Amino acid sequence: MNIGTKIKELRNHNKITQEDLAKTLCISTQAVSKWENGGSPDLELIPAIAKYFKVSTDYLFDIEDYELTNIENKLFKYITSFNLNERIQQVYRLGFIMSIATRGEEIIDLDKFKEEITNDDLFSVVVSEDGIIITSLAQNNKVFTVIPKDNKSNYLKMLESKEKQMLFCKYLSDNIFYDSLVFLYSRSRTSGSFTEKLLCDNLNVTLEEAKDILEKMKEFKIVSCTMTPIDDTEVKLYSVLQNPHIVSLIQLLDMVSNRPNNYCHYYGGPTNYFEKK
Q1: Are residues 165 and 98 in the same domain?
Q2: Of the residues 72, 96, 121, which one is the last residue of a structural domain?
Q3: pTM score, two decimals?
Q4: Which residue ranges in the chain fall short of pLDDT 50?
């Protein structure tokens, strides 16, 4: 049962109006109505709701006493209680809160804290011997990255492809390659296959430059190419391949080239990132 449906069931059983519940939780009546019509409350409100109805948080998540009640199950049920188009935002928001918790710090008033960090320039960074967590709180540039570190995952594996990394950086430093990369990953996924002419027409590059760029992209599986017979001749048709790491790369390059200065939370650890643990 959806948690919003559970709240509605408890509210009706106890003859409590949406207005009464909203007033107790210091939220709007519209928020309660949204929960009861398929939405879910913020995770930080769950304890207060459970206390108000005198039930356990497990009950709200429809987890019986005899079932597993570990936090992974609760988080799974909480995230899946949202609509598909809301779940990534919830993971991002919870990730930031959990990153602060890794240092054992407690947020006394979460609502007040969220108001204080409403700033497009704020970042949060945690660096320790156990890994790195980076969060951008900018509303137009949200990022949450976790890079754990232990005996097996010690950052050394990523250094093994040094030559290929340097080659890709060399390609990326070329203005035409960079613009082509952004352009191709800006097209609708229904745009279909294309020829070199697409880059010529949209980026004002020569046919030879377009061919060179696409060959380089083939090296890194950014595009695929098939020979297709058209009008008694074979034409190269290209397709863009799924590669979300491109977004991560551009984002990290942005943070490296424009190192953040404003932090709502900063825990600085050792800088010997690549030392074997």
Answers
A1: no
A2: 121
A3: 0.71
A4: 65-68
